[in-house]
Amino acid sequence: MRRRLSSLATSVTIVLLVLLVGFDSHNVQAKSAAGGRVLVLLDNETDKALYSQFFKSLEDRQYTLSYKTASDPKVELFAFEERAFDHVINFAPKTKNYDNKVNPAALINFVNKGGNILLAASTELSETIRDFAREFDIEFDDRETSVIDHFNYDESDSDGKHTLLVLDDKKGGFSNNSIILSKETLEGPPVLYKGIGHKIGTIPLLTRIAWITSDTAYSYETKDGQVADQDPFIFGNEISLVSVLQARNNARVAFVGSLELFQDRYPKSGNQALIDDLIKWTFQEKGVLRVTSRRHHQEGEIEPLETYRIKDHIVYSIEISEYVDDKWHPFNGTDVQLEVIMLDPYIRRTLTPLEIQPEGHQYSRIFETHLQLPDVYGVFKFKVNYKRPGYSYIVDSVTVAVRPFRHNEYPRFILSAYPYYASAASMSVGFLVFSAVWIFNKDTSAKKEDKKNN
Amino acid sequence: MSSVKPAIDKLLKSYNKETPQNLKLIDAYLAFILVSGILQFVYVILVGTYPYNAFLAGFISTVGQFVLAAGLRIQTNPNNSGQFKTISPERY
């Protein structure tokens, strides 16, 4: 009896604990679809104060920030082969020697396991960080260089080197990708940028967010008395300032050539809006899609089949949600396509977004199409391969078998085939009649032959 | 043209006179098969190949019959009797 009571007490405790933990984790959930654990890497512990506004905005959105110096030997990205953080902010461009487990190779591994990285560089950029960026097809200019424009700098730039650039060409110099950059950013005040430039490669996973549009800008060293006697590495339109990459596993990496952008220095500029958009996108607070279900069945049926017949009329539908403002909402795209693939796509069809039913759930939208399977049998995939810059990628496929007609499923007694039926029948009848005539005719003709031969 | 007509006349005359009656019987049967095969071919060109298997069945049955009947004609032709010595008497 006592044992039973004690076991009851244990189970009650467990239930309570689970409830507590459940509530607790719900309370501290960050506004990201990927989780709220952030590792902040700094050159020095004291640098933290420079970005107080920025870090406060993250904490306001329920992120848990762990500040570490990049050379701290104890910091680890992984615990038991699992990511210990969901996001990494690397504000430590100066640190050369990573004698620990957050070196570039580990950061790349982190991305491969789905973690997001925000990397801010500066003029004092170590070779380790440049190596890391090269892995993503991004080439930062050399150490000690800055983006300079003698015709388009901000007045408050007092050192006379003209490195504080005014990015006021919001139409030309910023990505028009409305998933990453919000309207407020594009219509707000100019962005003030002071830092290093980079050149992006050709891989399609990269998206340029901000770049130079003025032809007079170039990237060069800014020592006192520096004479520009060699061609700059990049100039004019080639200079990218902010670029982002979404890896194939939907991990996001942002490269910013300026640490100053995140500092509290330029309160009236459009910097705040830009980095807000950037951090929201990079930390998966927006532009995140997910598939909640997919269905396929014959027209007029409900149950999906493992095997369809060639030329069957079927209905395919997929439900997609988009993560907006902390919640899953119906996705509003109009260009989701279905491919019916057996090595090659046999059918490629744009799916029709359906209206949200008031009595149904409100977090996703159904995309549907009615189609007739091709006149080819084999193993097919119903594949939705939706990859748009800014949105997380959707690759969703279902495998079904498509069988040929059974022998009794072919049409019979086709009107236009009657001549052939008549011919085949007349050949059979003709054979019998001819055989009969031949047999009974044989004697007389043979006699004739005999007579002739005789 | 003037030389063709006597040639045809001669051919018909000699056919009627020289060809044994059982071979004429086969020839009539062959002509029937040939006509029905040609008709089907013309039909498939006009109407299209839709019941293609039915066309193949009908057409190939005429071809098969034609081959069989032509074979019989060759074997039973007294002119070829030297080549077919082992043929059973039932076929005559």
UniProtKB/TrEMBL annotation, chain A:
It comes from the Eukaryota. It is found in: Endoplasmic reticulum membrane; Membrane. Pathway: Protein modification; protein glycosylation. GO terms for cellular component: oligosaccharyltransferase complex. Residues 37-282 form the OST48 N-terminal domain. Its main location: endoplasmic reticulum. Belongs to the DDOST 48 kDa subunit family. Component of the oligosaccharyltransferase (OST) complex. This is Dolichyl-diphosphooligosaccharide--protein glycosyltransferase subunit WBP1. It comes from Ambispora leptoticha. The lineage of its organism: Eukaryota, Fungi, Fungi incertae sedis, Mucoromycota, Glomeromycotina.
UniProtKB/TrEMBL annotation, chain B:
Keywords: Endoplasmic reticulum, Membrane, Transmembrane, Transmembrane helix. The chain crosses the membrane at residues 26-46, 52-72. It is a multi-pass membrane protein. It comes from the Eukaryota. Pathway: Protein modification; protein glycosylation. It holds the Pfam family DAD. Its main location: endoplasmic reticulum. It is found in: Endoplasmic reticulum membrane. GO terms for cellular component: oligosaccharyltransferase complex. One of its GO terms (biological process) is protein N-linked glycosylation. Subunit of the oligosaccharyl transferase (OST) complex that catalyzes the initial transfer of a defined glycan (Glc(3)Man(9)GlcNAc(2) in eukaryotes) from the lipid carrier dolichol-pyrophosphate to an asparagine residue within an Asn-X-Ser/Thr consensus motif in nascent polypeptide chains, the first step in protein N-glycosylation. N-glycosylation occurs cotranslationally and the complex associates with the Sec61 complex at the channel-forming translocon complex that mediates protein translocation across the endoplasmic reticulum (ER). All subunits are required for a maximal enzyme activity. Component of the oligosaccharyltransferase (OST) complex. Belongs to the DAD/OST2 family. This is Dolichyl-diphosphooligosaccharide--protein glycosyltransferase subunit OST2.
